[in-house]
Amino acid sequence: MAQISLATNNINDNIDNNNNNGAPTTKITSEYTPIPFPPPSTTTAITTIKDSNNNKLLAEAIKTIAQTTSKSKEITLINKLFTTTNKSLVDIISTTSYGGKEVKEGILVLDENVSKLIDVVKCCLKLLTSTTSSSKDKSKDKSKDKSKKKDNKLDIALLRLAIHSLRSVISTQLDNNSTLQVIIKLFYHCIVISGDACHDLYSTLSVEGNEGKKAVVEYAILCLAAYEGLSNCLQLVLSVGNGKKNKVPKKSSKGGVVWDELIPISTLAEEKSSSKNTPPQQQQYVKIIMESGLCISSSLLYLSLVSMHDSGSTKQQKKELTMSNEFHFVNNTLHETTSGKYNGSPPTFIKVMKSVVLPCMLHSLCSAEVDGSDGVKKRDSSFNIDAVRHVKKAFRLLWDGARYIEDIISTSTIKNESQELLRISCLELQSEGIQFITQVLNMIYTKYPSLLTNKKSTSSSSSSSGIKELYALFDRAASSSMKAVGMFEKTTSIFTSPTANNRASGNNESSSMKKKKRALLHFHRVAGDELDSVALHLFESSSSSLPASYYEYCVYRSIHQWRLTSSIDTRQRVPILDSSKQAKRSSSESIESAVSSVTYSIVQLVLEARHRLLSHDHKELHDEEEDCERIISNFESIIINNTNCSPTSLNRCRSMLMMLNLQREATGLITSTQQQSSQTRKGSSISILASVLGQCLAPLEYKLSRLTKDQSRSLNFRLSYADCCSKSASLYDIVAEMQPDNDEDEESYTAKADLQLSQAYEILVKELGRLDNESVDRKAPSIVAIEMFAKVSLPCLLISNNTTMSCVYSIAITLFFLRLLHLLVNEDLIEKRTRHQFNLSSWHQKL
User: Fold this and answer.
1) Is 22 left (phi over 0), alpha (psi -120 to 50) or beta?
2) CA dist., res. 324 & res. 322, Å (int)
3) Centroid of chain to Cα 22
4) Do the bridges between strand 569-577 and strand 377-380 make them parallel or antiparallel, or are there none, so unpaired?
5) Is 20's pLDDT higher than 50?
6) What CA–CA distance (Å, rounded) separates 580 from 76?
7) What is the dihedral of CA 662, 663, 667, 670, to 10 degrees?
8) Which helix (H) or strand (E) holds 480?
9) Which of 167-176, 383-392, 423-432 has the highest mean pLDDT?
10) How far is CA 36 from CA 41, 348, 627, in A?
11) How many CB atoms lie within 10 A of CB 30?
């Protein structure tokens, strides 16, 4: 069925400070702890003004609406209700919305005006919807001036009035279920509008400036206020008829709202389990909660991001943001969200995503609308493909948050130490987005495996479509994982900076470098393990090839693990389709998957060999040699001999193999083994490296040299091919020397070395003939490659037992280097008859 590759140790156990040869030095043995978000050193304080006059902002909002130039009937209705004779209504709304003491007379006034207030809310939302649609239409106009600022004052005033009005009337409708359901829908619209406005405005902060930041904060706070009101209504509605008492929303130890526990998710789960089909009303609540949760998570995230914008500025340049304590949760919310002080807990927006959005999303995915026996639509337990877009939206929210952090790093004057923390935060946020997808997929496969094979579905293709959607989600998670770790490696210089490999200087690496290494390994442990689990489910359910992006990520993970710990992870379970099945696949996606999977197998093979070379266990195992031959044979049939492989796939394969630094590793190995007397127990590991160099990387370089049209790149591929062959020959000869008691094996390895040398010679002698006598650069790639061939080939001849081949090579290489010497000194040192290209095979036949 599936070939499962097993590869590394616990990545939390140690991180090794490696030199280029991979030798371990310093070990780090502490568990990884995610850093606070936002990192405290990267934020600017947002001061909360404790305004005792709580109706001031509401009164100003009503005044702003009254002063608008629009004379629509909605504006007229709003102005009519809040006249000078109804000033007391403004005070009562503000007091009850804020959560102050309820006044008996105030409740009576609210009760008399409930229908009017709800109409006012509808008017506010209608105006907001029209302005939002108008602004979107204008944004499509190419002639629009992008630098023009948007006036958010009226929109914020309309939202403030609508949310305060809705929050105030809840207490008058405790037993009126129908009115509460109307209020729930209105709260939902307020949340979506304020959340979308917060998102859209944050993306234009460079244009809006400090006023834009203030508006982002206000939209976020209004979104939170609407969300809290929604939760209070849902608590009332879902407790009706259940014999349950309405629960008071939980508060944290600091008195703030516990946002991830406001919505009664457990009640929805109990109702679902008690009935076979999902009631339409309950399904509607699930959608409202899910989309509201996404909006509030987005708003909390942007609050954190806004606090980072001016953190690197000087005191004179900083412009402090302020926010009035309009609602009772504001002080605590702003303090936690903008300071990163969560007492060891993850950020609130992450907790909402996991505790509220994720279960609702799973509920929505596993409940679709189907045709009943009577022809009436009903909700049934089947895979809901339409709900997949919500999973993508949740992922995009977290992924964009990480992108915004990168923008902050590139545009601010934050110190280097804080930049490193932000880069780690960026990686952790990307990890959360990837885990959101993988957790959804794992839950579907573990809790509802029958959904994808449900025979009662509306169409026979629904199961197939569901698998395709899950496959696409998995592909997105895997490719995003590869991008995340690749970008982190590039931006942090974790493997190339002077502090990353400082064994030669004897200094311990910095704490910052250790943090970055732990963060990268932690990403691979949590996100990588989740991907492996989904990969196994997908593979078992469809028995088809997995996305190429998954295997490419696995290559990154294995190499990062090796570079950081000099070990391989034995916990990994990577499913690989049998090579005979892979060869029969003809689609481009299947071919790309086959190329990536067999490349991953080669990478694992090399890392295991290098691991044995560094360890004290060098047993000669025939099973390993057979595995090596099988994997290399698969590589040759799928990549080297397959004419259907695109140049793009071949180049990606080459990029992954180049991450192993095999040629540099071979050079170091050749040098070290020449200086050591006893190497007999390392033969099988060195043989594997020689085989991969000579039978995989070298022919791949040669194939690419023939496919590329760029002459410079083609030359580089040819020279790299010759270099691989030369070093492979040297490694084979080293292994041959390690067989003193086995003439048959010694002869076999010597023959392999001779073959690799002949291939390198044929390429290089042609390049030698192309060199211009008038201008030969001593450091030209061709000359460097030829010199490397000399260093490798001459020792091979000295130890070779094949007298005939030694004679052939002696003649060929002597003439070869006379020609090179002539070119380098630009003097006529050799007669013309010795300056032609010799064919090695023809010499062998003559001899």
Assistant:
1) left
2) 7
3) 27
4) unpaired
5) no
6) 75
7) 60
8) helix 462-492
9) 423-432
10) 10, 11, 46
11) 10
The C-alpha angle with vertex 343 and arms to 345 and 435, in degrees rounded to 5, equals 15
- Give the per-residue pLDDT at 8: 36
Q: Which residue has the higher pLDDT, 782 or 100?
A: 782
More confident: 488 or 545: 488
Give CA separation, 181 vs 97, 109, 184, 310, 587, in Å. Answer: 18, 22, 5, 43, 51
CA distance 723 to 502: 28
pLDDT in tens, 491-517: 988 887 555 554 434 456 778 888 899
**Are the beta carbons of 334 and 275 closer than 8 angstroms?**
no
The more confident residue out of 530 and 542 is: 530
- Respond yes or no on whether the N-terminal peptide bond of residue 38 is cis (omega within 30° of 0): yes
Q: Supply φ then ψ for residue 705, to 5 degrees.
A: -65, -30
Rounded Cα–Cα distance for residues 846 and 129 (Å): 90
Query: Measuring CA to CA, which residue among 293, 295, 303, 412 is closest to residue 354?
Result: 293
Residue entry with tokens 């270099």: 723
- Tell me the CA distances in angstroms from 91 to 59, 82, 95, 166, 167, one per residue in order: 9, 11, 6, 14, 13
Cα separation, 59 vs 591, whole angstroms: 66
Q: What is the pLDDT at residue 118? A: 93
CB burial of residue 465 (10 Å; 0-12, 13-18, 19+):
middle
The closest alpha carbon to 229, from 169, 178, 302, 154, belongs to: 169
Q: 3-class DSSP state for residue 13?
A: coil
Q: What b/e sequence results for 285-318 when a residue is b if at least 16 CB atoms lie within 10 Å of its CB, and e otherwise?
A: bbbbbbbbbbbbbbbbbbbbbbbbbbbbeeeeee
| Separation CA 293–CA 299 (nearest Å) | 10
Q: How far apart are CA 93 and CA 90, in angstroms?
A: 5
CA–CA separation, 836 and 830 (whole Å): 11
